[in-house]
Write a structure and sequence with these properties.
Elements (H helix, E strand, L loop, with lengths): L9 H4 L4 E2 L27 E6 L14 H10 L4 E3 L5 E3 L2 E6 L5 E6 L13 H12 L14 E8 L2 E6 L6 H4 L7 H4 L19 E7 L3 E6 L12 E6 L3 H9 L5 E3 L2 H7 L3 H6 E3 L2 E2 L2 E7 L9 H10 L2 H7 L5 E3 L22 H10 L3 E2 L5 E3 L2 E2 L1 E7 L3 H15 L4 E7 L1 H9 L6 E7 L7 H4 L17 H10 L5 H18 L2 E9 L1 E4 L33
Parallel strand pairs: 2-11, 20-21, 20-22
Antiparallel strand pairs: 1-22, 3-4, 5-6, 6-8, 7-8, 9-10, 10-11, 12-24, 13-24, 14-23, 15-22, 15-23, 16-23, 17-18, 18-19
Helix pairs in contact: 9-11, 15-16
């Protein structure tokens, strides 16, 4: 939500789930025309400046639930494994591993010679420490669930780590894509008070340099990175809370990369100036956008109310009018084309009369003034969403207008990203919210939908609970048989479609734009960011120098 994102290295590789703040495509990223032209020799140097509408909240990934934090932390830390460009699991800090025939024991062989950014050696003790910290009940993390499945974790030698499960756990291997933390800097401390939250120390391709709250986060290339020094000397995240302002900065040459809105992608960048200086990419993102209800509120306790809202909202109107067709309709927590996606679930076509009938069944009737009332109370609620994302604001306005037509009054509140996450979502101070999840390659959605994950800082922040869903979530993650898992997740989607705890809106296309001087970008099924350390700017085109 990544929040949550969302474990773990969530945002960059979509290993788990994260809240994301940024605003019929292809499964593989679409390369821009002319993207491969003008090939020049790789060279070290230059800086990439990327725009972000949200500032980070915490640069210790274990404690962060927002994509802005994980986007930065993903360049600073490594997990034991990661996804390659074709979404295959490959080694990261682990050079290799063996899995026992019954799938219950994984033995990781760690890379030798890897050092933390402060020069200390990375060892299996760091992995064991991170595991213990994650499952510690005093650690306020949303990501302990996968690691609570571990029966035994042990260090065999400084470069061998073994983990044993007492029953099959399908996401086991990829769960070790979580960021490994430095034992020597954190052990014996209260992690919530650690200076690493503001000044992280990892093993990753980039090292922390500076964080000016609300303005920028600066990273510099790690000269000793085990996969080779990144070509690009530095990465600067500029916090620009408004996408229109960010676009002006892009056009002026003050930032090199941002995620475009559909309007910017389809119209505002279709000029000779942009064609000359930028490359655009498009692919169906690993995410979805939804209207989520606070199910602790009596107003949304009756599923007929939630079903009525689904019939009252025209999703295609949002996809065509707001997304300009650069999205697919969402019917559940998996994107179309994913093996776990169930294309046969119950749907809610735009049908205002049906919406009114369901609301009447639930006791909400027109008092004669066009406004629904029940027991003397009017049907009024507030949608809260984050500042800087005009797409979500426009979605809220369309939902507001359509619900008014069936007698429901909707207010809209737009809040700065950090306050939105920390003061509203995490504290349950909302009626409904428009948000997005970045989703995992593995279909396990336990952390978002299991009824045990509703505590503060956990990802089931709407308070959803369904005993059958709980059982299916447990069953789905407890077998390696994909056919059995498919049956579990198909049924979960059927239940969610019936219960409507979210109004699943759409799966957006990712629409990154990047200054043309950056080379080495190779679109793939995973997207474009997987090989960032191999991006480069030819010597003669370099513009920026990283100050000492």
């Amino acid at each position: 939500m990544k929040h949550a994102s969302a474990v773990f290295r969530m945002a960059v590789l979509a290993v788990a789930l994260t809240f994301w703040a940024c605003s019929g495509a292809q499964d593989q990223a679409e390369a821009p025309s002319g993207a491969g032209a003008g090939v020049a020799a790789p060279a070290y140097g230059d800086i990439m400046v990327e725009g972000s509408i949200g500032d980070a909240s915490n640069l210790i990934p274990l404690l962060a639930s927002d994509s802005a934090s994980h986007e930065v932390a993903g360049k600073v830390y490594n997990g034991l494994v990661k996804y390659d460009k074709d979404i295959n699991v490959v080694g990261d800090l682990a050079q290799s591993w063996e899995i026992s025939p019954d799938g219950l024991v994984i033995t990781f062989h760690l890379r030798k010679g890897v050092r933390w950014h402060d020069g200390r050696p990375f060892t299996a003790a760091d992995v064991l420490y991170t595991y213990r910290l994650t499952i510690d009940p005093n650690t306020p993390t949303a990501y302990a669930g996968d690691f609570l499945k571990v029966k035994k974790a042990e260090v065999l030698d400084p470069h061998t780590f073994r983990v044993t499960y007492d029953r099959p756990f399908a996401p086991a291997l990829m769960s070790w894509g979580s960021s490994i933390l430095p034992k020597h800097l954190l052990e014996g401390q209260d992690i919530t008070r650690s200076p690493l939250a503001r000044r992280p120390v990892g093993t990753g391709p980039y090292q922390f340099k500076e964080w000016v709250t609300g303005q920028k986060i600066v990273l510099t290339a790690n000269p000793d990175y085990f996969e080779g020094r990144p070509y690009i000397d530095g990465h600067v995240t500029r916090i620009i809370p408004d996408t229109a302002t960010m676009f002006l900065e892009l056009r002026a040459g003050n930032i090199d990369r941002m995620g475009l809105t559909p309007l910017q992608y389809k119209r505002q960048t279709e000029t000779n100036v942009f064609r000359k200086h930028f490359n655009k990419y498009r692919y169906l993102s690993f995410s979805y956008v939804y209207l989520g209800y606070n199910l602790r509120k009596p107003l949304f306790a009756d599923k007929r109310v939630r079903q009525a809202i689904a019939h009252a909202v025209n999703k295609q109107e949002i996809i065509d009018g707001v997304m300009l067709g650069l999205a697919r309709e969402a019917t559940g927590p998996y994107k179309p084309g994913a093996w776990a996606h169930n294309a046969k679930v119950k749907t809610y076509p735009y049908d205002p009369p049906k919406a009114r009938a369901l609301l009447a069944e639930a006791g909400w009737r027109d008092g004669g003034d066009g406004v629904l009332k029940k027991d003397g109370e009017t049907f009024t609620f507030e949608i809260v969403t984050n500042q800087g994302n005009e797409i979500r604001a426009k979605c809220a306005e369309i939902i507001q207008r359509r619900l008014a037509e069936v007698g429901i009054t909707v207010k809209i509140r737009v809040v700065e990203w950090a306050a939105f996450v920390n003061d509203f979502i995490k504290k349950g101070r909302f009626d409904a919210t428009i948000l997005g999840w970045t989703v995992s390659m593995d279909p396990d959605i336990y952390d978002v939908w299991h009824s045990s994950k509703t505590k503060p800082d956990e990802l089931n922040f709407i308070g959803y609970g369904n005993a059958e869903v709980d059982e299916l979530l447990e069953r789905g993650r407890s077998t390696f048989d994909q056919n059995l898992r498919k049956k579990c997740y198909d049924r979960i989607q059927e239940i969610l479609a019936e219960d409507q705890p979210y109004l699943f809106l759409y799966v957006p296309d990712a629409l990154p734009i990047i200054q043309k001087r950056f080379r080495g970008i190779e679109p793939a099924p995973l997207g474009i960011g997987y090989n960032f350390i191999r991006w480069y700017v030819p010597k003669g085109e370099q513009r920026l120098v990283m100050k000492p």
